[in-house]
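Regression test case RT-17, inverse folding.

Input:
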């Protein structure tokens, strides 16, 4: 609520286009919102998804060091991830649909 400068849960729920009860369950039951909502919060606030996940006092340098030594990340994967970062919410929803389809079709192929 503080990040979005929202005076109330009702106002914040309206900004995020979710029911107030849904938002309350995320806040009070320590549940995560769906990725699309987290992305919207990130977009509205300018706070990265990692910072939303780990907290405002999270040190990104430690994570970046881990990323540099990550195993098996191909140049193609790095390129795809960079391009994904530039997409808007609608485009990301489409990418998620495509990824879900590809995962499902791969699983079906393995079963055959």
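Golden output:
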């Amino acid at each position: 609520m503080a990040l979005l400068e929202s005076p109330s849960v009702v106002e914040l729920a309206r900004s995020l286009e979710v029911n107030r009860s849904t938002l309350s369950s995320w806040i009070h039951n320590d549940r995560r919102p769906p990725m699309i909502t987290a992305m919207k919060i990130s977009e509205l606030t300018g706070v990265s998804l990692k910072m939303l996940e780990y907290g405002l006092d999270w040190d990104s340098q430690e994570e970046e060091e881990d990323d540099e030594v990550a195993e098996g990340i191909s140049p193609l994967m790095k390129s795809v991830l960079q391009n994904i970062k530039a997409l808007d919410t609608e485009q990301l929803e489409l990418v998620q649909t495509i990824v879900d389809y590809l995962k499902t079709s791969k699983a079906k192929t393995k079963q055959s």
